[in-house]
Structures are given as C-alpha cells and as structure tokens.
Amino acid sequence: MHPAFSVVFFTTATGAGYGLLALLGVLAGVGAIPPDFWLGFIGLGLALGLIAAGLLSSTGHLGRPERAWRAFSQWRSSWLSREGVASVVTFVPAGLFGIGWVLLGRTDGWVAIAGLLAAVGAVVTVCTTSMIYASLKPIAQWHSRYTLPGYLIFSAMTGSVLLNALLQGFAVGSNILLAVCLTLLGWGWKLATWRHNDRLEIPTTANTATGLAGGTVRSLEWPHTEENYLLKEMGFRIARKHAAKLRRITQLLAFALPVLLLAIVLALPWQAAAVLSVLAAAAQFAGMLVERWLFFAEAKHTVTLYYGR
C-alpha cells in the first residue's frame, strides 16, 4: 500500500494522544496524579492536540477533504465512520475532564467520572481505527489477529512514555516501570507481527482469481499502458533491503533507545531525568512514524494479481 504521510502521521499522533488521554483519565480519576494546574493544562493540551492534529492530517489523503463530514453518516457499516463518531464523542467527556481539572482544580467526583469516560472513549476510538485495517480481507498483513492488539499496545506504550516525560518534568513522580514494560511488550508484539507477515502464504493467485485450474495464468496484455490509481495506491512496493533497514531503525528508535534512556533515568537527578524522559518520548514518536510507514508499505493488496505482481 502507498504510505501517504498524512495517514502515517494520523495513526501515530492519534495513537499517542489517545494513549496519553486514557492514562491521564484513569490515573487522575483514581487520585494517582495530583490535580496540578500546569500538569493538567499541558498534559491534556498535549493529548488533545495530538488527537486533533492527527484527525486533521487524515483529511489530507482525501480527494475532496471538504466532504469528510459525510463519512459520519455511514456508522452502521463503516469502521471509518465509526472512528469519526467515536473520536468526536470522546471530546465531550475529555472537555469536561479538562474543565474540572484545569479550571476547577479537582479530579474527584464528576470530574473523575468524566476522566474515566474519556479513557473509555479513547480505547474505543483506537479499536475502531485498528478495525479500519483489520477488516480488510484483501490485505492479509492487516487482516490478522495481530492488528487490533497492536494498535492498543502501541497507543498505551507511546502514551505511557509521554506521561512519564510529563511527570518527570513537573517533578510529581514517574511511571517508568509501566512505560518500560509496555515498550518491551510493544517490541515483542512487533517482532511477532513481522514474523507472522513474513511467513504468510497468500492463498489467492491469478489462477484462483480467474477460476482457471492447472498451469500458470499470466496476462497477455496489461490492463493499462501506464501507472494508474490502483497501482499507485495498492501496488506500492518496497525493496527487501530497505524494509530490513527500516525495521532496524524502528527497533532502535521506538523500542531499544526509549528503554535504555528510561533505565538511565532511574540513576539521575531530577533535571537530567526530565531531559532524558523527553528524549525517550521524542525518539519513540519518531520510531513509530517509521513503524507506521512500514505498516502501510509492506501491505500487499490482492488486486495487484491482475497486474502480474
């Protein structure tokens, strides 16, 4: 699949934003995070800012972005529409949670309930995003048991590393253990996903697609004389050596480097720990951009069989 940067940024930014929002909603709601004004203002601002930036960037891949609102009407049958509805609905409890925390200085009572509802909305929205891809049967790399859990794990992982940077920056604690455990879990899940995809044997061939048994079916004439939309969007190909290099970059930036930096944080004073925590979050975000790019670039649509690929 063609890895448009608008969609790559969308899945990365919203995943991190919803992960951070869910953790803030749960931890503040149970009293694990103090109702500090600047922590709430910057934390919720960062979470909602990432979500909004990601949602806006996703319209950049549309031929007619001004018609994006029409997608909301198809929620009965479309995971894309359900994602849009869930993302908008989540802003309601998130806004109430922000008002209670930032303006009223409290995270208990109805504010805690709003935070928990925002966390639920964040999880539901991430699930609907993942199902946009997991429901596509023509793309075997996405239509697997690894896609939905992967989205949830990566969202929680990036959100926890961002939250740790915030807590360290305001010197109100840390969640290093959670961030490290989720990062290691994400690393293992990504390796398992790559292994599964590399071993995939696609049952559909040109023979099965045409119903012609025996021998090898091949085209005498190409359907088009030049590159068309289907080949551009569905037939994108990446060289194996480039994919291997990008996989190593993903592992370094998204997983190995954040774990190393967070481990070093434990032995440093507050100021240095805060700086390294921010660097860990920045490195992981960059690494997840590469991982999302690979997620699209390595996917193969069965329509390319009709073009001899």
TrEMBL record:
<keyword id="KW-1133">Transmembrane helix</keyword>
<feature type="transmembrane region" description="Helical">
    <location>
        <begin position="84"/>
        <end position="104"/>
    </location>
</feature>
<dbReference type="GO" id="GO:0009390">
    <property type="term" value="C:dimethyl sulfoxide reductase complex"/>
</dbReference>
<feature type="transmembrane region" description="Helical">
    <location>
        <begin position="146"/>
        <end position="163"/>
    </location>
</feature>
<dbReference type="Pfam" id="PF04976">
    <property type="entry name" value="DmsC"/>
</dbReference>
<dbReference type="GO" id="GO:0019645">
    <property type="term" value="P:anaerobic electron transport chain"/>
</dbReference>
<keyword id="KW-0812">Transmembrane</keyword>
<dbReference type="GO" id="GO:0005886">
    <property type="term" value="C:plasma membrane"/>
</dbReference>
<feature type="transmembrane region" description="Helical">
    <location>
        <begin position="249"/>
        <end position="268"/>
    </location>
</feature>
<feature type="transmembrane region" description="Helical">
    <location>
        <begin position="7"/>
        <end position="31"/>
    </location>
</feature>
<protein>
    <submittedName>
        <fullName>DMSO reductase</fullName>
    </submittedName>
</protein>
<feature type="transmembrane region" description="Helical">
    <location>
        <begin position="37"/>
        <end position="63"/>
    </location>
</feature>
<dbReference type="GO" id="GO:0009389">
    <property type="term" value="F:dimethyl sulfoxide reductase activity"/>
</dbReference>
<keyword id="KW-0472">Membrane</keyword>
<feature type="transmembrane region" description="Helical">
    <location>
        <begin position="169"/>
        <end position="189"/>
    </location>
</feature>
<feature type="transmembrane region" description="Helical">
    <location>
        <begin position="110"/>
        <end position="134"/>
    </location>
</feature>
<feature type="transmembrane region" description="Helical">
    <location>
        <begin position="274"/>
        <end position="295"/>
    </location>
</feature>
<dbReference type="InterPro" id="IPR007059">
    <property type="entry name" value="DmsC"/>
</dbReference>
